[in-house]
Amino acid sequence: MKAVKVGICGLGTVGSGTFNVLTGNAQEITRRAGREIIIQQVGSRRDNPAADTSNTDVTRDIFDVATNPEIDIVVELIGGYDVAKKLVLLAIENGKHVVTANKALIAEHGTEIFAAAEAKGVSVMYEAGIAGGIPIVKALREGLAGNKINWLAGIINGTGNFILTEMRDKGRDFADVLKEAQELGYAEADPTFDVEGIDAAHKLTILSSIAYGIPLQFENCFCEGIGGITPEDVQYAEELGYRIKHLGVSSRTARGIDLRVHPTLIPEKRSIAKIDGVLNAIMVNGDAVGDTLFSGPGAGAGPTASAVVADIIDLARLIDAPASSRVHHLGYKQVDDTKVLPIEDIETAYYLRIPALDKTGVLANIATILSERGINIEALIQKEQAEGEEIVQVILLTHIIQEKIMNDAISAIQALEGTQGDVTRIRVEYLV
Amino acid sequence: MKAVKVGICGLGTVGSGTFNVLTGNAQEITRRAGREIIIQQVGSRRDNPAADTSNTDVTRDIFDVATNPEIDIVVELIGGYDVAKKLVLLAIENGKHVVTANKALIAEHGTEIFAAAEAKGVSVMYEAGIAGGIPIVKALREGLAGNKINWLAGIINGTGNFILTEMRDKGRDFADVLKEAQELGYAEADPTFDVEGIDAAHKLTILSSIAYGIPLQFENCFCEGIGGITPEDVQYAEELGYRIKHLGVSSRTARGIDLRVHPTLIPEKRSIAKIDGVLNAIMVNGDAVGDTLFSGPGAGAGPTASAVVADIIDLARLIDAPASSRVHHLGYKQVDDTKVLPIEDIETAYYLRIPALDKTGVLANIATILSERGINIEALIQKEQAEGEEIVQVILLTHIIQEKIMNDAISAIQALEGTQGDVTRIRVEYLV
């Protein structure tokens, strides 16, 4: 059967990883795909000693790749927004299929890109953008396609999970671990995307669209980072039988789609609570299947290349098929318009850490504020103050309540004479 | 687009589950598949109150379904060998695609069935046969297709895992828990398939073929049940930092394919060691991706139906595509002839429990036997005998050694004057 010809744009970590997997596993890949997959051209501003391209046509202009008439599939691994978008759209315009690892591009410009691809009868594949080597896009769009997906929850940023794991295992504080993560190369010099949850929100946005068949709407994804988590919170959570993870959580409720990324207490017995270090994991609950868990390495050259190459093999197998034989970009022929809930309208349980003065009546006042708003207390720890300190920490777990009611309760608690400073609030998910 | 018409054969637990998912989620499924999927006919000897077939064409002769000219996809959910095989081959002969949950049929007659299907240009899908709702066949054949798979290990029989979990959690013995499992409906009246590992060996046979591209060869899969595991072994394993699981283990070594099902000690820190109860889980190690873990419910109406329906949707999407666009039955266009290693040639670490008389020199003799054969001891526990007993239990963990050398060592230990009765041997896998 005719070989399929690939052009790789970008020769960084993932680009060189993809080059090496395609060449190193060429024999195995041909056996699987039923035809040869050839790297026809590489577009990269510079060589990378990690990939031996001496026998490959290398161009310094990535746009050459997008217009190369020999090429069937353009692999976009340059990252970023503007140039990547231009490249992908040019490839589509030239009738190429596209494979990308760029979740930011898909989450923020996917609607436009997919529409262009559909008009041209080509596909844009993006498995590598989410949770690295874990084939979660395929699981949601195909493997669990018979289900109405009820909810999903994912540890989908390895840097954040590494930081929280270190904080827990060694009692270290956030800034300290972040610095180490940067030295180890797990975190970028500018760690905002990772620790603020933006990267996770990109991924969650995509996962939710393919889970529920809703439009990509990154702008409606609530996002809270892990910078405010203290070693004490990690410790208190532990005492209560929970782990703190930076979780992307999404569910389909009668009132709308719940879509949010934030630090989350998870009961320690749940499998996903035990996913440590730079690993990623996604739980998916479907109405037929129940709970499933997918875990593995969420980043790095090999795992990301694994996903890129799987997408290439899929496209190669389907290259002679009508467009309708390929999976719809978001897993659904048509998305529906179910709205994303504003964060004030979500319902969840809460962990509260309230700095209180050690005075009679403070606890009673807090309990009254909660009770008046119909907020039930599930568990409570009151810690003695350290010597010489006036403040005691009151730690509460509440039952499930609407966020706006909790906001109001927190304002009232902070206004009490007996409390001092801000209440720390971390959402709790039971994942059942 | 033209609707795809399905005929369901068998209306037991999985058949009625599939009927209910296809009808209950019809709207969602149409949105995903891009066309309607209609249940054209059901073939079943009797009705099942779990599925309301009052508006469906029901025949008492399942072979009617296989020859029904209206039907595109025949779903075989009757189980067993002879009739199921006849049905599947008749459906293929009539140009139908087939979806089945029958791992025994595929593991033992897959080669013949796939050849017939390929000759007719149709596909036989079997995701539901392995690990219920976990889309592991799809993960191996497609999601991880860029990898050379190095090894995989799975808890792929829920009954066995339930029994071992209960034995560990409550210190109960095998026979006692088996009886409860039968009462709960987790285990069949004849539990041989589950507890002897035959069911797991069927699944492992299939997983290994699609992981490495080797022919189905159930007859070469080594198989050992869990009936010989005692609560004491579970306890000793725990003391050493391990859990005992009934594991299917398979790897691609330079000397051949390692393919075996047996009770296995796994370090308790490995995620798969924590998969408890009736859950299933599969670890897959690929050269690019590293370690991945897939877990979820391995049986039951809903989870199995989830996989059946996913296969139906895949076929529906590809119904107008050339045969080459569908995934090869074993994930490879051609399988190769890598041999399965005889069990004597495999290499693994071992747990040994040696009943010894409490006499000077016995331990030294055991150590000498091991040392003479190049077997290193990794850990050792010697338990005092219970009051009034003469026998002490010597528990050993060894380094990795070839099975035939271990067999020889065990014979020599059993021949010692200072030991009494059989040595218990459980293989140990580190899964790294």
UniProtKB/TrEMBL annotation, chains A, B:
Its EC number is 1.1.1.3. It comes from the Bacteria. One of its GO terms (biological process) is methionine biosynthetic process. Keywords: Amino-acid biosynthesis, Methionine biosynthesis, NADP, Oxidoreductase, Threonine biosynthesis. The active site is at K203 (proton donor). CDD domains: ACT_HSDH-Hom. InterPro entries: ACT-like_dom_sf, ACT_dom, Asp/hSer_DH_NAD-bd, HDH, HDH_cat, HDH_CS, NAD(P)-bd_dom_sf. L-homoserine binds at E188. NADPH binds at K103. One of its GO terms (molecular function) is NADP binding. SUPFAM superfamilies: ACT-like, Glyceraldehyde-3-phosphate dehydrogenase-like, C-terminal domain, NAD(P)-binding Rossmann-fold domains. Pathway: Amino-acid biosynthesis; L-threonine biosynthesis; L-threonine from L-aspartate: step 3/5; Amino-acid biosynthesis; L-methionine biosynthesis via de novo pathway; L-homoserine from L-aspartate: step 3/3. NADP(+) binds at C9, G10, L11, G12, T13, V14, G15, S16. Belongs to the homoserine dehydrogenase family. This is Homoserine dehydrogenase. It comes from Oleispira antarctica RB-8.
